[in-house]
Write a structure and sequence with these properties.
Layout lengths: L2 H19 L1 H15 L9 H7 L10 H11 L9 H10 L5 H10 L8
Helix pairs in contact: 1-2, 2-5
The structure holds calcium ion.
Calcium ion binds next to loops.
Length: 116
């Protein structure tokens, strides 16, 4: 599956998930996703951990290029890995319909004005 298809799937998927779970539970789901994908020793998602754990999320047909693209896209501080905050922000950014909702969530998570 190409990354763009994946993103389009997310876009369809997330708003309905938010509607079903509520925003708070949705953030919890994202955090679960992060924990599944992260490198347990480093506490962040790296290229290696993403590659190793992506099958847990059913992303096993993604290629190296797509993983790198996802990392580059989400890595806001340029350390080459995704922190929990970076991962959640990336997931929200993949779903434009959630912008208003995500701003509210981010305020609960430290008030970062990243999506403003
Ligand atoms: Ca980073």
């Amino acid at each position: 599956m190409a990354l763009i298809d994946l993103l389009l799937d997310f876009e369809d998927y997330f708003p309905s998930m938010v509607a079903r779970l509520g925003a708070e539970a949705f953030v919890g789901e994202l955090c679960n996703g992060f924990i599944l994908l992260m490198d347990v020793e480093k506490g962040v998602i790296t290229f290696e951990s993403l590659k190793r754990n992506s099958f847990l999320l059913g992303l096993n047909d993604m290629g190296d290029d797509e993983f790198l693209c996802m990392l580059r896209e989400g890595d806001l501080d340029g350390d080459g890995a995704l922190s929990q905050m970076e991962f959640c922000i990336l997931m929200f950014r993949l779903s434009p319909g959630l912008m208003d909702e995500s701003r509210l969530c981010m305020m609960d998570y430290g008030g970062l004005p990243i999506l403003a």
